[in-house]
Amino acid sequence: MFLVPPSAAYIGYVDFRVLALLFCLMVVVAGFQECGLFVLMARKLLSGENNFRQLSWMLVMLPFFCSMLITNDVALLTFVPFTILILDMIGEKKHMAWIVVLQTVAANLGSMATPVGNPQNLFLYGRFSIPAGSFFAVLLPLTALSFLLLTAAVFCIPRIPMQIRFDAPAAAPEKNALPALFLFLFLLCLLSVFRVLDYRIVLAVTVVCLLLFDRKLFRTADYLLLLTFVCFFLFAGNMGRLDWLKRFMGEILNRNPVLFSALTSQFISNVPAAVLLSGFTNDWKPLLLGTNLGGLGTPIASLASLISLKFYIKELPDKVSHYLAVFTAVNIAFFLILYAAASFL
Known about the structure:
By secondary structure, this protein is mainly α.
């Protein structure tokens, strides 16, 4: 990490705005999870579904749309276990690999639609001060195409007649005041992401609210991810001060920045790839496209994909090879189509 001798300049490498907003979003979304709002919403949407294909479509679209606001990681942490429970309940576990893989792809692709959908978007949006209109103009067409592709993929699932009935009604949130508080904090986060409110104000308000109302949420933040960001900030800052490396990486990125960003993501994951490569280019558009499309591919291309894999292994440990085969085939197919579409943007 210390290719350049440590100095006061190291502090300047760290993007404290991104770290603060990531922390705030983590604990606020965890608060929503604690209230049971996401599962309650899912149960209301799924209750009464009359055929398996329709049910599968709903299960895939839940992480697709929710990831736009609660991040791809949280969407999968919430809805994959719920899906496994549903499939076990109706005796359709044989379709689990297909549906969980589609959920994983849906969360990764749905999350690219907004600056808060995934960590690399949040970082790049702030790093390059991307105008909101330009951001959405680049990624919403691909998000719309992703929606159509996911819908088409669901048609591979048989249209088996069935009906979902939950034995007991979903419990309402125990602490009625907290959902409103978390909604307020989430809106503050959005205002800060879109540069309406200073991130330090949002961080201070969030910390004070947690101290007063729900201290255990401090334990829900992914501090390892935050530390990873700090390490890559320092690493990328060091790399950027080596002129020969900067020229070399700049030349590679100029050839095919979208593909290079996507390929880099396959080996180090798309979040570190975004942080690392941002130091070698001022052209945010291909980097944004490449790191989002780069979430498709290997299980480590997007660390959110490992969440689904972990749940699947726990449920069907003897079918992991089948899952990985389906995962690889679906990811490659989606990547090739979306990469071709991205060339027209």
